[in-house]
Design a protein that fits this description.
- The complex is a heterodimer of chains A (256) and B (330).
- Chain A has 256 residues and is an all-alpha fold.
- Chain A contains eleven helices and no strands.
- Chain A has helices at 3-17, 20-41, 56-86, 88-93, 99-127, 135-164, 167-171, 174-182, 197-203, 205-219, 223-254.
- In chain A, helix 3 packs across helix 10.
- Chain A is elongated and about 60 Å long.
- The two termini of chain A are 30 Å apart.
- With 330 residues, chain B is of the alpha/beta class.
- Chain B is built from 13 helices and 14 strands.
- In chain B, strand 7, helix 7 (180-195) and strand 8 form a beta-alpha-beta unit.
- Chain B starts with a helix and ends with a helix.
- Classes of the chains: A mainly alpha (256), B alpha/beta (330).
- Chains A and B meet through helix 1 and helix 4 of A and helix 3 and helix 4 of B.
């Protein structure tokens, strides 16, 4: 991690926390969904095929987490688009900084923010009576996976931003977040989804990321979902980061 | 490197371009077309032209934000296409509009810029403080930039461009939109940089700015370099100064033309009350002209020495005044 990457990461974090209009929805919107789902749909745990869980709240916490992480990924893209539009990005790229360092700086900030986001929802869970099935080790796993998922979604946001260039275009993808979310097993077990939603959920990477976050909270330290979650998250990071770097290079070569 | 011939003159060049062009695929229009430049080290080079003439595109080519369609460009001895990283390490850039993050403080931005240019975190704080003081922003250093005036933003922008003591500084329309006092402050800073030996490539649409600040001026119109020399040499190409005489009585004009021919080369003015006397210098012939008119009993309402301006140069080269050229050359 180079000094420029760290400086850019600190700047990105500083700006995130200085933009309450960006920050608050990351926590508020998923909290509202969480409250509505837990308040009205707890009876679904009695449906045949619903897995044994410590509580419906514990089961729903990962859904709130991935929703929040996806929104922050989109916001990372919007922030970069705004920098491109304002010309601030030109200032960064006329400095003798490796292009990779620019992307890495943003992703480092996303990792820290991701950990903060999942910690917030864990705290909400604890305050409202959810047990941490995986204990302290599970807590650490959730933090690590949350940070990595934050990086993955931010990398997707950057890849889109470098191509789109306009914040309004990136912002227009907001409904897509919910489509991807509902076409995964983040809210409900895959077994309870009807075709073709169950098929889509089976191939949706978000299902595995949510599954990896869910296991330590709701079921315990189950190796398979946690490893699947880590692997899928790593895969998304690699692919999206490559796309982001390629997008940045394309943008700089295009220059307009 | 195409500057070999230039090097043989014994002059070092901070910027050299050869037939550089930028053509945009959409519409195939040329933003910059076949421009040759040779900016000497330590020189303030003014790049003068109306909006849309290609000034900013030229800057973006030289600071590696754009790739040229053809031609070559070297900045601080480095090829902008083959070795952009070395170019970036040698230059300071203040682009148009002073794109500065409003949510960060001046000090934070300077320290970030310092780290991006390779200074350690330990060194970046004192360097940032020094530059804040230099541009008169010490007391505002910890305020968010959103609270800054336009002039303060421009000064911070300049400080950020100077954080690593660049060899070549690019200022893209640095005073556009500034009030007169902020403009003068920025001019003083540019002069100070020249005195320290920094090469300054300055684009402007203001005639006075190019005239006052630049050692040499390049005039760009429609993406082409149409003239280049020192401001004085460019103006002397257009013609000599003249004394504009306003007569009290229009009936004296014919006689005043005869009298003035002893001092210079007179011609009738645009109204019956006026004549213009072309002279060698202006100031030195003025007393003789006043005396001659007075001795002839010709009453004068006003006299004015009019020297050629860079706008006259622009007019001669492009057929339009700089102020009205935006529509003509765009």
């Amino acid at each position: 991690m180079s000094a420029p990457s760290i400086a850019l990461a600190l700047r990105a974090l500083r700006l995130t926390f200085r933009r309450p209009q960006f920050l608050i929805p990351l926590f508020l919107m998923p909290s509202i969904f969480l409250a509505v789902n837990v308040g009205g749909l707890t009876a679904t745990t009695r449906l045949p095929g619903f897995p044994e869980t410590t509580s419906f709240l514990a089961f729903q916490l990962p859904a709130a987490m991935v929703q929040s992480l996806m929104l922050s990924g989109l916001q990372a893209g919007i922030a970069v688009s705004l920098e491109i539009e304002s010309g601030f990005f030109d200032r960064i790229v006329t400095a003798p900084v490796a292009r990779l360092a620019i992307v890495v700086g943003r992703l480092m900030a996303a990792a820290v923010l991701g950990a903060v986001q999942v910690a917030f929802f864990l705290l909400v869970g604890v305050l409202f009576g959810a047990d941490m099935a995986g204990g302290p080790a599970g807590f650490v796993i959730v933090l690590v996976l949350g940070a990595l998922a934050g990086v993955a979604f931010a990398a997707i946001g950057l890849a889109i931003a470098f191509r789109a260039r306009q914040a309004s275009i990136v912002q227009g993808l907001f409904p897509f977040v919910f489509a991807v979310l509902y076409l995964s097993s983040a809210f409900f077990p895959e077994e309870l989804l009807q075709p073709p939603a169950d098929t889509i959920a089976a191939i949706n990477p978000l299902s595995y990321i949510a599954g990896g976050l869910r296991a330590p909270i709701a079921f315990g330290l189950q190796a398979a979902p946690i490893l699947e979650g880590l692997l899928v998250t790593a895969g998304v990071i690699v692919v999206a980061s490559l796309l982001a770097v390629a997008g940045l290079r394309w943008r700089l070569a295009d220059g307009s | 490197m195409p500057s070999r011939a230039l090097e043989s003159t014994g002059v070092s060049h901070a910027i050299v371009t050869s037939a550089i062009e930028k053509r945009y695929p959409k519409g195939g229009t040329y933003a910059v077309q076949g421009v040759d430049l040779a900016v000497e080290e330590g020189e303030v080079y003014g790049f003068l032209g109306p909006n849309g003439a290609g000034k900013s595109t030229m800057v973006r080519l030289l600071v590696t934000l754009l790739r040229p369609t053809s031609g070559t460009a070297f900045v601080a001895g480095h090829d902008v296409v083959k070795d952009p990283a070395s170019v970036r390490a040698s230059i300071g850039v203040a682009l148009q509009d002073a794109a500065i993050d409003p949510l960060m403080t001046g000090r934070e931005l300077l320290e970030l810029q310092a780290v991006l240019h390779g200074l350690s975190r330990r060194d970046s704080a004192p360097r940032g403080a020094l530059l804040l003081e230099r541009v008169g922003l010490s007391s505002a250093g910890d305020k968010r930039v959103g609270e800054y005036s336009g002039g303060m933003r421009r000064r911070l922008d300049l400080a950020m461009a100077l954080i690593h003591e660049p060899r070549v500084l690019f200022l893209d329309e640095p005073t556009t939109g500034l009030d007169p006092s902020s403009r003068l402050l920025l001019w003083d800073e540019v002069r100070r940089l020249r005195d320290q030996g920094t090469t300054v490539f300055l684009t402007t649409q203001y005639l006075e700015e190019a005239d006052v600040l630049a050692d040499r001026v390049g005039i760009i119109a429609g993406g082409r370099l149409v003239a280049e020399d020192t401001p004085e040499a460019l103006k002397s190409q257009v013609g000599r100064p003249h004394v504009h005489v306003v007569l009290l009585n229009a009936t004296d004009r014919e006689r005043s033309l005869q009298v003035a021919s002893a001092v210079g080369d007179p011609r009738p003015g645009v109204t019956d009350h006026c004549l213009d006397v072309s002279v060698e210098d202006g100031a030195s012939e003025l007393p003789a002209l006043v005396r001659a008119l007075d001795e002839a009993g010709i009453a004068v309402a006003g006299l004015d020495v009019v020297r050629p301006t860079l706008d006259d140069v622009f007019l001669q080269k492009t057929g339009a005044h700089l102020t009205e050229a935006e529509e003509v050359v765009a």
